[in-house]
Inverse folding.
């Protein structure tokens, strides 16, 4: 007994230490970051965030979409679990439902967004199948579909497992007592599941409330709080104080949920013995539940079907012939395992050591902005080729373009630099307002977002990185690039040295110099922009209209241009 108690104490201490290290400590740091400035304690960060344009709307949107998604998910999961436990349909079909319901759990949420685009988008698989786009996928509709698929496995497992512990013989007792079917259902099935159903709703709600992957793909102009957190913490100018405030606001509802779950514990039902019985025959019930569950599973699988189809297609949706080229390209990529290992190393080191301050940096890559077009879409929609960034404001391009939001990605800064440099701030503001109006739901969080939409045929025109468009064109995709009349502006990226100690800093600086001197030749193949003396690239890869912004590119200037951008959003 003493040995067992000692083991329990050790387990408790280790578990407690892990929770303190990875949960309590980060939470306390988060809270302190939200109220402490260089001058001491302040509520200024909370005031700034709560009065920020669009924050309360994004918060309300998050509650709305998360609540609706959680409610529908719980209902669908209950229906699937009921079909398995309370019908006499084929056992193999039941097993298929059980396995298919948890399938989405094994895919990252970013995959859901792209699966929805390639299924229901303008050039999507189901759109092609039905001959028209069934509905607009950007905004509430796309988020609802993505969130339901995302949370269905968790909700199903909760309800399915609990339903397995309900004693079905109480149904016979209920009928003997004279209860009708509805009363029997409510007392014998629904009542014991009340706590689990609420737990399912809460769990699904917070998975939706905190997810960023799906909004990043199909959120459109329906901004949610997870997108705000991304912009504050990982945007073009990270603000960790305001980001901490947003994170705290996202944590507050979890406190309410914990209290609710504790309250719901009293509704849990425990049976001393679970009886096995043959369910009464009811062909109407079996057919209804079987067809309904089949349609639910078919709906989920049909969205993911495109993931298993597109890799075998030459160039979806333009060249639909069978091809194994994509697989050969992936497996012949010598750097694939290196990238995989690097991802593991970075994840491990980030978790263990955290973030350290940068000591010094040197330019290592540069990126240029350009106009990107889908040549087949331009021809199909009879659109004129744009010659300048200003052209994107033309009414004929409404709903046909995609650009990036400068609050989330510095790629958008290249576009804004071009407008301000050529037309001045006032006219640039007018042009940008019209560009954002034309983009509509396609004001993207990611710098590569516009190019991905151009590739998929969701839009005809985008603004993105020149080298990516050049690479796509060389691959034979229906993608071309146009160097805008305003010019190709450039942003540089750097290699930094972590500030740890004087002794280590000197060695680290030598390593950084080695990377720059020996790595630039290879980097120029992907980023063909000469930065140092003696560097050159082929004439075919040089930008057609290189320009430099007249002012020094500082964080303050970026913030100024972000404010200009925000004022252009309607």
């Amino acid at each position: 007994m003493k040995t067992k108690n000692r083991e329990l104490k050790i387990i408790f201490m280790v578990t407690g230490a892990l929770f303190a290290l990875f949960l309590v400590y980060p939470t306390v740091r988060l809270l302190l970051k939200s109220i402490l400035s260089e001058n001491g304690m302040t509520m200024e960060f909370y005031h700034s965030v709560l009065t920020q344009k669009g924050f309360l709307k994004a918060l309300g949107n998050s509650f709305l979409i998360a609540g609706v998604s959680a409610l529908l998910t719980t209902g669908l999961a209950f229906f699937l679990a009921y079909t398995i436990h309370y019908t006499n349909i084929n056992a193999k079909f039941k097993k298929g439902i059980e396995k298919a319901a948890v399938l989405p759990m094994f895919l990252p949420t970013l995959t859901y967004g792209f699966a929805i685009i390639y299924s229901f988008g303008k050039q999507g698989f189901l759109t092609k199948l039905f001959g028209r786009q069934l509905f607009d996928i950007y905004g509430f509709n796309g988020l609802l579909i993505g969130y339901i698929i995302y949370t269905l496995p968790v909700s199903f497992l909760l309800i399915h497992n609990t339903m397995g512990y309900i004693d079905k013989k109480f149904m016979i007792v209920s009928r003997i007592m004279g209860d009708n079917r509805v009363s029997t259902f409510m007392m014998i099935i629904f009542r014991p599941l009340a706590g689990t159903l609420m737990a399912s709703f809460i769990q699904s709600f917070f998975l939706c409330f905190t997810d960023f992957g799906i909004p990043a793909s199909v959120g459109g102009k329906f901004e949610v709080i997870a997108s705000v957190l991304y912009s504050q913490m990982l945007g073009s100018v990270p603000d960790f104080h305001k980001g901490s405030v947003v994170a705290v606001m996202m944590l507050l509802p979890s406190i309410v949920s914990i209290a609710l779950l504790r309250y719901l514990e009293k509704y849990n039902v425990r049976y001393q013995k679970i009886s096995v019985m043959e369910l009464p025959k009811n062909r109407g019930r079996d057919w209804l539940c079987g067809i309904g569950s089949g349609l639910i599973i078919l709906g989920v699988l049909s969205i993911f079907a495109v993931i298993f189809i597109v890799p075998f297609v030459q160039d979806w949706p333009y060249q639909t012939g069978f091809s194994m080229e994509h697989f050969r390209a992936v497996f012949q990529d010598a750097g694939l395992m290196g990238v995989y290992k690097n991802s593991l190393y970075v994840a491990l080191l980030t978790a263990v050591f955290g973030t350290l301050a940068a000591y010094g940096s040197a330019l290592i890559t540069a990126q240029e902005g350009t106009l990107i077009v889908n040549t087949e879409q331009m021809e199909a929609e009879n659109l004129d080729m744009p010659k300048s960034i200003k052209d994107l404001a033309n009414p004929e391009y409404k709903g046909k373009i995609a650009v990036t939001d400068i609050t989330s990605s510095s790629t958008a800064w290249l576009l804004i630099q071009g407008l301000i440099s050529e037309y001045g701030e006032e006219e640039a503001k007018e042009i940008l307002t019209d560009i954002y109006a034309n983009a509509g739901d396609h004001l993207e969080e990611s710098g590569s977002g516009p190019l991905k939409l151009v590739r998929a045929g969701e839009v005809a025109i985008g603004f993105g990185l020149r080298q990516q468009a050049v690479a796509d064109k060389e691959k034979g995709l229906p993608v071309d690039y146009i160097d805008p009349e305003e010019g190709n502006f450039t942003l540089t990226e750097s290699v930094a040295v972590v500030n740890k100690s004087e002794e280590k800093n000197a060695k680290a600086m030598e390593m950084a110099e080695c990377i720059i001197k020996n790595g630039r030749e290879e980097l120029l193949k992907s980023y063909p922009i000469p930065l140092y003396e003696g560097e050159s690239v082929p004439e075919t890869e040089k930008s057609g209209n290189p320009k430099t912004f007249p002012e020094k590119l500082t964080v303050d200037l970026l913030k100024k241009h972000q404010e200009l951008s925000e004022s252009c959003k309607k």
